[in-house]
Amino acid sequence: MGAKNGVKEEPTSSDDEVPLASRKRKKLVPKGEPQSEGSESEAAVNGNSGEDSDYKNSDDDVPLSKRKAESDSDDEIPLASRKRKGGSQKIKKQTKYDSSDEENVPKKKKIKKEPETNNKKVVKRTIVPPKGEAKPGKKPKKEKEPDIPIWKWWLEDKLPEGQKWRSLSHSGPAFPEPYERLPGHIKFKYDGKVFQLSERTEENMSFFAKMLDHDYTTKVVFRKNFFDDLRKLMTQEEREVLKKLELCDFSAMHQYYLEEAAKRKNRTKEEKEELKVKNKAIADVYGLCKVDGHIQKVGNFRIEPPGLFRGRGDHPKQGKIKLRTPPESIIINIGKGETAPKCPEGHKWKAVQHDNKVTWLACWKENVLGNFKYVMLNPTSKLKGEKDHAKYETARNLKNCVEKIRENYRSDFQSKEMMVRQRAVALYFIDKLALRAGNEKDDDEADTVGCCSLRVEHIKLHEKWEDKEFVVEFDFLGKDSIRYQNWVAVNKRVYKNLKIFVKDKEPGDDLFDRLNTSKMNEYLGTLMDGLTAKVFRTYNASWTLQQQLQEQTDSKSDLPNLVLTYNRANRAVAVLCNHQRAAPKTFDKQMENLGNQKDAKKEDVAKQKGVYKEAKNYYRHHRNNDKAKKRYEIEKRKLERLQEALLKLQVKETDKAENKTIALGTSKLNYLDPRITVAWTKRFTVPIEKVYNKTQREKFLWAIEMATADFEW
DNA sequence: ACGCCGACTTGTAGAGAAGAAG
DNA sequence: CTTCTTCTCTACAAGTCGGCGT
Description:
Layout: H1 40-46, H2 58-61, H3 101-104, H4 116-121, E1 168-170, E2 189-190, E3 193-194, H5 199-210, H6 220-232, H7 236-241, E4 248-249, H8 251-265, H9 269-286, E5 288-291, E6 294-297, E7 307-308, E8 321-322, E9 331-333, E10 351-353, E11 362-365, E12 372-375, H10 382-412, H11 418-433, E13 459-465, E14 468-477, E15 483-489, H12 492-502, H13 517-527, H14 533-552, H15 559-576, H16 587-621, H17 626-658, H18 665-670, H19 674-683, H20 694-699, H21 701-706
Parallel strand pairs: 9-10
Antiparallel strand pairs: 1-5, 2-3, 2-4, 5-6, 7-8, 9-11, 11-12, 13-14, 14-15
The structure holds a DNA duplex.
């Protein structure tokens, strides 16, 4: 499946055969080794309000949830008791965000004044009445949609550069259910003795108890982080007693939650229906908003519930407690002149702002990593659709100048300037292998890399590998700690350069020590407007899809085989982008089942063949017998249908086998220009629902409308 | 130049719904 | 109808990248 071969000629050498087929990739199951962080957290607990609270991450670790629900601001975080300056040399993260009010509001550059022009255009008032809670059964009154359906956004007037909307109203975010205490008979025991827990500790423990069957709870780092945080959030009395996680007996709690889960699963039809109605009522209020006069779906309108942080791979912060987010932490973004969504009784929003340079409706800062979380629109919205379209247009644009860029970097392989050489080689990888850019990462994140952050230890150079020359072996953990393993025959000059880059370096040293993503992107920007590293991924993915479809589609194929062709093209892209999934747990069994089904069907076919032949024979000798004729025809059709079914099974089997560890969804959703797919389905009259499910059709409605059968990328 | 921050896209897992098999 | 499988959808973590302040 040399998807990209033949396109990117490498004049200088034989590196065209990317041994895609030979890739062996597996998810690295990270072994959670100790990673002991020292005793900082202990200090945190003890120094709770003392002057020695100068521990790492002190800000992050301050138990926000100490705040009373009614508290009206963040101010009560004992600022005074915390040092924010002294000794901060070793404290990198800490300053990231501070707890004082102003500082916690994302400082938007120029949000202060909105251009006058908008005010004029502010469409009439909200249709989504702000509500404290969903009123089941009563939907917000619907207004009729404006003349131009929203998904034909390309027919609408463009907004001025940088402006994202003219008017915006919504109902704010929905909050998760409050914690429900365990029934009295569920006891928690510590060191064999029943112990009465405070509500907060019980809630925090419940997060752990619910996960007891999960692998996470066996990991040392996870357990330590959890228990450290748990202790910080305990009452004084609890802290004095509950000192070791190992002595905590969660079995009663765990059992209880298992039963609850079972109950949930065994809900009756009526209960399910009731629940559905209730959810719908919530979605009708919080799931919709109005942008520039159009009703649009909101994406993630629910505030994330509290729980334990599930960092992927070997994340140093896995297991830390993600606190419940109170309204006091949430910033609302709405149109000027709109009434802010109603805040839950007795609370108030952290702030209400009117910034039309951003697309989010609400945001808050999450306590574990200190990142912002946003409530944003659904992918079906104009705002997202337009952006998506623009992304693909940029990638298409790259198509026109990619050859020049390639020539460019090839000649840079010989530059006297080391940075330029490194940049050229890195770009070669980004282009040829669709690697991610690879920003630097902090020590308190999982150790993963991309192109620019590759280290010496991640590649091996082979003068000869199997039948190829100048092979680079890649083996590293990429995004989400997914392993990337590949053997690539490269341009000879690239190989020589790599030899130089590696020379006199330790395994842990940066391969491209003069390079980083900003330099790369800055450079790319000079080559083409809007060009950045990730555009290459989009470009190569979409280009490969089109190429594969063009090459592989046999217009005489029947429908199942056409679909198979599409899936194969899709798969070639997924392989290129290294989109992996864990092999389904029951994969082998499933394959076996399919095999059995196929055998059975084969038998049926054989049997039917006999019946058919007999009928045929009989008919041949009784030409004028209507019954014989009818029987012959019936048996014939039966046979055909069976053969068809067998074929389908066969196709299914191949498709499944090839798909074992490959995830198609990501590329379909994020990398493949939907217009290519749409054009293809139109050209070969494949029903669109064979390749896009409902959500996908909604997301790509713009492309379904836009692309004709002759669309060419 | 560089590090931090904010906003936005990309990515996998897992829950829940729907469908097929027994 | 129940049970097991498969598909769909949501949740939320983890990237990318531009801009700002120093």
